[in-house]
């Protein structure tokens, strides 16, 4: 196979346990988002829009739905000859088999795929973040700096900096120190977990790390400090646009709400860098004669007969007569039956809130209801 300039390795095996009921049956990257998307759509669309057409997707936790959804990559224009999406789950060897032990170990177990593709550069991505980035611009910075590794960073609020891996740099953006969740951070440039490596160096470093019994086989904890100590050329690429790591129910709910309004924080309607999806074709949404819809995203296949305000209603969801949905996210096929009220809730795929039931409170934490769950009306 001819040598490629850059191949993406997309880490998509996360369980996402802090999303609670939302990931009981699916991996975090496969969780529904924004009415017609899944979380992984955003990074796959970034790859396509950046001209990176060879993507290895490393899966692990509850992978079936994700595998089925990805298919050949056609939905994201990633199915061209000699490229495309490759599913890379953990596998057994003569030495046995185990789940990926860390982010670096996941790539180590798939060095054979990298060697087959033979890219000059390797882009490491996470499948559970929401943002729009041109990776070509990051690669251009990497080459300009003659870097061995480039880490995407973004400024965070100083009060939040201790929650992140922090990059301390010189005036040219070269990394001079890395601090993992420092109590007293020296900068507010937080790692986004997006890396571009020179592939030859990446492979050598991963193979050495795999032999280190004391290593946690993690890019932030082990690989970056090792390369810094070896005097390699590590640089940052500063990103200042919208980015969210939706790790909790509250942050997931907030990110969905940020899609709403006349000037949303994240624009799903951009034609310059569109977000693509493998959502099935469905008929148009139906909004009934007595329905009342205000500041909401209503996906195809929905039936809206009641009141929906400041909410995201996904494919094939149903809101019955006299029902009320406010500040909520309804996943595909979710049903809020006649006279029911749902406020500040994320309602899972095919979950049902029965007639007359009340769920959620605007003054309390956002509630997450799992796929196929049924909420009955409380007895009076």
Automatic annotation (TrEMBL):
PROSITE patterns: ADP_GLC_PYROPHOSPH_1, ADP_GLC_PYROPHOSPH_2, ADP_GLC_PYROPHOSPH_3. Pathway: Glycan biosynthesis; glycogen biosynthesis. One of its GO terms (molecular function) is glucose-1-phosphate adenylyltransferase activity. Keywords: ATP-binding, Carbohydrate metabolism, Glycogen biosynthesis, Glycogen metabolism, Nucleotide-binding, Nucleotidyltransferase, Transferase. Residues 291-364 form the Glucose-1-phosphate adenylyltransferase/Bifunctional protein GlmU-like C-terminal hexapeptide domain. Signal peptide: none annotated. Alpha-D-glucose 1-phosphate binds at residues 100, 165, 180-181, 191. It is an enzyme of class 2 (transferase). Residues 8-260 form the Nucleotidyl transferase domain. The keyword Transport does not apply. The record marks 60, 99 as: Could play a key role in the communication between the regulatory and the substrate sites. InterPro entries: ADP-Glc_PPase, ADP_Glu_pyroP_CS, GlgC_bac, GlmU/GlgC-like_hexapep, NTP_transferase_dom, Nucleotide-diphossugar_trans, Trimer_LpxA-like_sf. Its EC number is 2.7.7.27. Pfam families: Hexapep_GlmU, NTP_transferase. Homotetramer. Involved in the biosynthesis of ADP-glucose, a building block required for the elongation reactions to produce glycogen. Catalyzes the reaction between ATP and alpha-D-glucose 1-phosphate (G1P) to produce pyrophosphate and ADP-Glc. HAMAP family: GlgC. PANTHER family: GLUCOSE-1-PHOSPHATE ADENYLYLTRANSFERASE, GLUCOSE-1-PHOSPHATE ADENYLYLTRANSFERASE-RELATED. NCBIfam families: glgC, PRK05293.1. This is Glucose-1-phosphate adenylyltransferase.
């Amino acid at each position: 196979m001819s040598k490629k300039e850059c191949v993406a390795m997309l880490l998509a095996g996360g369980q996402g346990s802090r999303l609670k009921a939302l990931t009981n049956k699916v991996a975090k990257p496969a969780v529904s988002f924004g009415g017609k998307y899944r979380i992984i759509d955003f990074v796959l669309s970034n790859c396509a829009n950046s001209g990176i057409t060879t993507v290895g997707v490393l899966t692990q936790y509850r992978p079936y739905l994700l595998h089925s959804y990805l298919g050949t990559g056609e939905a994201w224009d990633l199915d061209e000859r000699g490229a495309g999406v490759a599913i890379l789950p953990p596998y057994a060897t003569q030495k046995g088999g185990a789940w990926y032990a860390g982010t670096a170990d996941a790539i180590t177990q798939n060095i054979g795929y990298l060697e087959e593709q033979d890219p000059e550069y390797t882009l490491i991505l996470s499948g559970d973040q929401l943002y729009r980035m041109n990776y070509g611009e990051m690669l251009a910075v990497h080459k300009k700096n003659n870097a061995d590794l480039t880490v995407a960073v973004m400024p965070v609020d100083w009060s939040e900096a201790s929650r992140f891996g922090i990059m301390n740099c010189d005036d040219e953006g070269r990394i001079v120190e890395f601090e993992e969740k420092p109590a007293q951070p020296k900068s507010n440039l937080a790692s986004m977990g997006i890396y571009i490596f020179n592939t030859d160096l990446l492979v050598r470093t991963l193979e050495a790390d795999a032999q280190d019994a004391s290593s946690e086989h993690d890019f932030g904890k082990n690989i970056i400090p090792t390369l810094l100590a070896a005097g390699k050329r590590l640089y940052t690429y500063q990103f200042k646009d919208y980015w969210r790591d939706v790790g909790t129910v509250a942050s997931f709910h907030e990110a969905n709400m940020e899609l709403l309004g006349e000037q949303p924080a994240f624009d799903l309607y951009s034609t310059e860098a569109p977000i693509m999806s493998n959502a099935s074709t469905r008929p148009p949404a139906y909004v009934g004669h007595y329905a009342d819809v205000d500041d909401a995203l209503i996906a195809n296949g929905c039936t809206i007969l009641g009141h929906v305000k400041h909410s995201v209603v996904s494919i094939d969801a149903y809101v019955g007569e006299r029902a009320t949905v406010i500040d909520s996210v309804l996943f595909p096929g979710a049903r809020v039956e006649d006279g029911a009220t749902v406020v500040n809730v994320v309602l899972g795929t095919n979950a049902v809130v029965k007639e007359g039931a009340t769920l959620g409170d605007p003054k309390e934490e956002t509630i997450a209801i799992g796929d196929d769950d049924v909420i009955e009306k409380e007895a009076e």
